[in-house]
Amino acid sequence: MPVISYREAIRHALAEELERDANVVVLGEEVAQFNGAYKVTEGLLAKFGPKRIVDTPISEAGFIGMGVGASMLGIRPVMELMFWSFYSVAFDQILNNAANVRYMSGGLINCPIVIRGPANGGTNVGATHSHTPENVLANHPGVKVVVPSTPADAKGLLKSAIRDNDPVFFLENTILYGDKGEVPEGEHIVPLGKADIKRAGTDLTIVTYGRCVLHSLAAADLLQKEHDVSVEVVDLRTIRPLDIDTVLASVAKTHRVLVVEEQKPFASVGSQLAFMIQREAFDELDAPIHRLCTVDAPAIYSPPVEAEQLPNPQRILKAALEVMA
Amino acid sequence: MTKKTSATADKKADESAKSTSPSASAAINRQLTNEARIDLFRTMMRIRRFEERSLRAYQAKKIGGFLHLYIGQEAVAVACCSLMGKDDHVITAYRDHGHAIAVGMGLNELMAELYGKATGCSKGKGGSMHYFAPDRNYWGGHGIVGGQVPLGAGLAYALKYKGLKGAAMAFMGDGAVNQGAVHEAYNLASLWQLPVVFVIENNGYSMGTSQSRSSAGELAKRAEGYNMAWGTCDGHDVYDVRAVMDKFLRLAREESKPAVVEVRTYRYRGHSVADPDNTYRAKAEIEEYRRTKDPLLVFQNMLTTEGALDEAQIEKIDQAARAEADAAAEFAEASPFPTPDDIQKDVYWEADNPSERKSQGRLFFD
Ligand SMILES: Cc1ncc(C[n+]2csc(CCOP(=O)(O)OP(=O)(O)O)c2C)c(N)n1
Ligand SMILES: [Mg+2]
Q1: Which residues of A touch B113 (CB under 8 A)?
Q2: CATH class as words, domain B8-335
Q3: Is the ipTM, as predicted for this complex, more than 0.85?
């Protein structure tokens, strides 16, 4: 199997879907001539031309809203947000229009739009550029939310997202773009709403997604080596739809849960998970459900301190030992 | 006149860099003493040397995140901020180092902020894009394109509300003009006759997109749709920026009328230092600007022609600016980082002032 980067995996998914369906269009700031602010769309303009790969002005409300409108008429726009952080400029279009129009029309309309781009901290770009809005997005029935952690998942999930008939919000990570992994060529599909056990274990379930999967795997290694704790790492991959069954099956095996997420704690994805786990599997639990989040404050700039604000293997290790105590 | 001075040592000085300004004779410029002119030049030089030093620090991995340099645009912030009276206020986007120095912030606190140190102007919390100095009427430093523009209208609203005869300057780039928030701010400013001057620093590009690929029509002329006054000026020429801005600032202060001013300028470096800058514009274009329009070179030539400056003075000003920038880097290097305990400080006013807290319940979560 070819080993390619997360960035290339996304690019391959885009190229294959552009090839497959003439209604797929890629729009966003700097996606065409500049080849993408993070080079995800590199080469697509040369291959598909300016009708399919379109540079937009810095008008997120305008161009995202335009994408939503075009999707109502059967175009399948894949819109790039240079950073998901800029979604707030287009909030109304995303959460009033894309999320609600199907419902308000009594099911007459659907919006097969994908909005994708990076959503992460860890690169010292400060409070305005480090938002992780998966919880805010997933709070809205009508939308789907995807956060891939590996190149193979990124490709397979993006292809599913583009073929999906609902609005799908696809949250990438600038720090993962260069990460490499094996990715099947051609038709590789990962269905939305299917979690993946990234590491099997028996003593503790870590439920996580996105870059925190990698941190959790690193922590799991340390826990095995240094503390003889066997950790199962469940990668949600999709936040909504949520594969709660895979989570519950793991809890039934380990009886202890730690949720790890690059999220502010209040009303996070982990809050929802903790509620569901206690409701569905209360009797399985040998310890209170624990959660490790970003330290509750806007993203600090100072590089060495930001690393401590975010989940990292050492913080995960410490939290895991608290659950095991 | 000799061209080869230290101010231009990093590029080739050229006869074609202009040495006179049609705006030199404007009253606001005529009244400048030689010392005041030299001060303007010195501030431009300090911005240039500060940023060159910060670029080296970035390359040495002392600085994280983004670093958007203002090199090439120095005349704009320096000219605009030189017109500030005690009730005039400034707000800008993330390319904010020049404005910060022009309003009088110290190089030490600015460099320390880039290094993420506790001695930085925002205690290492904001970084390059988020410089603030409310005590100098400087309201930042904002990372979201266009987001600061309504705030600028808000500063003007507050001035008017309080009955103060000041003006707000809200700076933005040529890409920012296409944000909805900017248009809403234009309308509010005109509808309510707010004393604000919207200053478009048109450097020709928003990241890798040229103005013609991003904007329909003339940028400043959009003011007409909102029944606002507008003007343009040459951002390579301190005198011209001062002359034009003076007119609109007076209109704001004295008649509480908003305006849009488009300043034609150019950035010599990539969008940020991460931009290899090799896809969207020709090297020759950058070189041509540097050779003929560099605001430092242009102003230096004007001042030399006027007899206000000589080569020895230029050299001295340059050396002092370099030394000051180096000292700022040493200060930043020697300063401590914030600690993880600092992460949750400066979030809520009430949490930072516990003795005056009125609300109840938990503010922070884990
Ligand atoms: C809402 C929003 N969209 C996109 C960005 C990313 N971005 C930062 S600067 C920039 C270009 C802005 O260009 P311009 O307004 O001309 O200012 P300049 O950088 O030339 O000073 C872009 C697209 C952002 N920070 N905020
Ligand atoms: Mg610009």
Answers
A1: 301
A2: alpha beta
A3: yes
